[in-house]
Amino acid sequence: MVTINTGTNLRGSSGKAKYDDLEQKLASGPVITVPSIERIGLKSTVENPHCSPVSEKSERFHHNSRLGGLGSVDSAFGVYGSRMEFAPMSAKSHSCELDGLCESPHDDPARWALVLTACFDESMESGDGNVVVAGFMGKRSAWEKCRKKWRSVLEKHGRKSLHMKELRFKGDRHREMLRELGEIPERCGLWLIFASVNVAAYKPLVEGTELEVASEGYLYAFQIAVLAALYRVPEGQRLEVICEHQLVFSQRRENICIGCTHMTEHQNKNRKSKLAKWSSISKSTILEPADYAAFALLQKLRDKQSLKARLCAPILKNKLKRGLCLSDVRSREILSELMREDASFSRPILTTEAKKAFIRQIPTGADFERELKHPSRVEQTSHGGFRLLI
């Protein structure tokens, strides 16, 4: 069961007086004991002390009917809190995958949808190697075409889904399928959005410091990808971001999105942010092109002459593209500048437990939004990017 809380979305709002009696009756009723979640807008948590963010150990429910056909009413900031923690639903009908896409917030809905996923070097287990965040961006009509064509090609090759890490690359076994799939996004009008960083290039600079936490490869690349997409959104239009479900970076990833909504350069003339909302999903057809693109770019960065890189090349030939593979030198320059400007970044975090403790005390959600009022929290940079203290 899903309950929807929209009564406290406005700061300082006490709700409509005509509903006071009804609310008192509801408050005196029995406690809901069936599995349920309460859908709460981000700003609601500021005024409602009973609402708290879910822990970083549990991702939020995706906030529209793409997960099992759940109904929804979304705030401009997306879903933030829930009363109970659930694992995401993985089984769903393909027919409802696009339900709710580019339909909210209802007063000024997103016109564009960006679907992102990440791919890591195996060496990232030791905090090293390349990190790629990539995906596609387009209007709902483009996503509808892409989904239909994607499913058709998979069925033609006897597959129900595509997961790049599960493919066995032997000879030309998957060449034709990957070629056909790789051509679909561009034909449907989807933009390739990508970003990559090589953690090995700057790890010696930040290792054992607070900045090591703030510059983890996924977060670094995610910032670049989201900004690349926002620069592509026309004036007067808005974007929703959909990511793959994952636990480790969920709340800090949300902090990045909140930070983007406060950047004046990414606001329309009506002063609303071009970033309308964000969410996460688990398995879905619309995640598969992003998975393919991220995997392909990672193989190219590793060895562009390898069999995997050559077989996956078609999806990277998209002429509609925007992004950045941050050079080793530039990644170090940005972080070095941060350390010079703020000595706190150089404070030591020498143990794994100390690092976990530091992450736990990082403000998230509404608390983080309040922190953004401090002028050092979001800084514009001359190269058109930004540095977000997460």
Outline the structure in words.
This protein is an alpha/beta fold. It has one domain (106-388): Ribonuclease H-like superfamily/Ribonuclease H (Nucleotidyltransferase, domain 5), CATH 3.30.420. The protein is 34% helix and 16% strand. It has helices spanning 20-27, 44-47, 140-156, 175-187, 199-206, 210-214, 217-230, 250-261, 288-302, 307-312, 328-341, 352-360, 365-371, and strands at residues 2-5, 37-41, 79-81, 112-120, 130-139, 191-198, 239-244, 275-281, 321-325, 378-380, 386-388. The protein has a six-stranded mixed β-sheet. The two termini are 33 Å apart. Residues 6-13, 39-93 and 377-390 have low confidence and may be disordered.
Write the layout of secondary structure elements.
Layout lengths: L1 E4 L14 H8 L9 E5 L2 H4 L31 E3 L30 E9 L9 E10 H17 L18 H13 L3 E8 H8 L3 H5 L2 H14 L8 E6 L5 H12 L13 E7 L6 H15 L4 H6 L8 E5 L2 H14 L10 H9 L4 H7 L6 E3 L5 E3 L2
Parallel strand pairs: 1-2, 4-7, 6-9, 7-8
Antiparallel strand pairs: 2-3, 4-5, 5-6, 10-11
Helix content: 25-40%
CATH topology: Nucleotidyltransferase, domain 5
* Assigned CATH superfamily: Ribonuclease H-like superfamily/Ribonuclease H
- Helices and strands: which structural class? alpha/beta
Distance between the termini: 33 Å
Estimate what percentage of residues fall within beta strands.
15-25%
Alpha plus pi helix count: 13
What is the arithmetic mean of pLDDT?
A: 78
